[in-house]
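hey m, so remember when u said the tokens were messed up on ur end? i reran from scratch. heres the input so u can diff it against urs
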Amino acid sequence: MDSYIAHVKRARTLIRRHEFRVKKKLGQHFMVSPRVLQRIIELAEIQPEDRVLEIGPGLGALTQFLAEKAQQVVAVEIDTTLLPLLRETLAGYPQVQVVQGDILQVNLDEVMQAAKGSALEVNSQYKVVGNLPYYITSPIVMKVLEGGYQIGNLVMLVQKEVAQRMAAKPATKEYGLLSVAVQFYAEVYCGGEVPRDAFWPQPEVESALVKLVPRKEPPVKVIDRPFFFWVARAAFGQRRKTLLNALVGAPGPFKLNREEVESHLVNLNIDPRRRGETLNLAELAEVSNRLYPILGI
């Protein structure tokens, strides 16, 4: 369709007409592949009754596709100089509202509730999609997952390496703190790789789609969530260290006695000499729950 901005020539023409300068510091790589955009729509399972929050609409390519499928789209854009371009691109889509703001600073539920025509009720979910700036992907993902927002699913275009880390299994080189944190809060589904020529300008790294479905309850029970993540952070802090040495020598607010830690690990049938990156979510929870009482908090 000629009105779609998802085309290199049209994107360049729009940018020249508005004398817009692409900002590398904001990680701006605009989507120009209708095929990839359609894949995002399918992965997010956008339905006619859905309300969608888009993170970083850019030139509005994905926004157009979303607007043709969903009831309402609220797009949050941090770059004020993109607003005139978005007004032109989205002029024919009354169901779209663009909100200027930093996604890391706003309350997503409040943004959806304040949107024109929105009435965010209890248990009323919306979907989140976005072509995320690669340099702040992890902070955005964790903000969305930890916020307790009314989100049905989250579909993101991210750096391939980050997508692999989110979905990684224990004892692999990709497995780390991000894997544990994301899998604690959500189910992870890989949506496939995305070629560099799907963007303009083209990024220097490979990209991939990932879908996160927030869990109603974490897959493991933990006595104290901050301590659980401290244990996980300690376990992955120095990958060449044994679990015992990593826990005892970890920086932060918690200090553990070496003999006590070793005794509790043995009692859990976890070899103190194991590397932290070999522990799965359940084992990290066991360690956290066993060690937390000895803190005397």
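this time it looks ok to me. The chain is about 35% helix and 20% strand. if urs says something different then somethings off w ur setup not the seq
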